[in-house]
Design a protein that fits this description.
Gal_Oxidase_central_sf, 25% strand, Glyoxal_oxidase_N, signal, 158 residues, Glyoxal oxidase N-terminal domain-containing protein, globular, alpha+beta
Length: 158
């Protein structure tokens, strides 16, 4: 019994300098990279359920639509009219935004159907493809192409 305990203690003590060296190198690399956390915006208007960095240094974020109004309005009096929505049949707030890293600004985007329980990926040209969701969103394919004026396009799958 003592031999087994001694062996375990020896293994831990032998690996401790290696662990300390790895931690020390990691901490030095993080410091050398100059990284830091900084709050850029106190409120983006939605709760970012999904977030994707695009190839144009912008970040698209989107949230579920069936939980009520968000805290950011759609532009130009645009409203989402959806008789199948569980919370708001007419909703003039955005449930998706595009964050521009270079200008630290938010642009509201129009997503028509609920993205809750969805998934997605970016293609090689930077297009964001987002599939599925909840309620009326479960059979939807959504596409967002990165450009200054682009918005979500949606198609229902048969």
């Amino acid at each position: 019994m003592a031999t087994k305990t001694t062996s375990v203690v020896f293994n831990i003590l032998w690996q401790l300098p290696l662990l300390l060296l790895i931690l020390s190198c990691h901490m030095n690399l993080a410091y050398a990279a100059g990284g830091k956390w900084e709050l850029l915006m106190s409120n983006i208007g939605i709760s970012a359920m999904h977030m994707q960095l695009l190839n144009n240094d912008r970040v698209v974020m989107y949230d579920r639509t069936d939980f009520g109004a968000s805290n950011i309005s759609l532009p130009n009096g645009k409203c989402r009219n959806n008789p199948n929505d569980l919370a708001l049949k007419v909703d003039c707030t955005a449930h998706s935004v595009e964050y521009d890293v270079s200008t630290n600004s938010i642009r509201p985007l129009m997503v028509q159907t609920d993205v809750w329980c969805s998934s997605g990926s970016a293609t090689s040209d930077g297009t964001l493809v987002q599939i599925g969701g909840f309620n009326d969103g479960k059979r939807m394919v959504r596409v967002f192409r990165p450009c200054n004026t682009c918005d979500w396009q949606e198609w229902e799958m048969a």
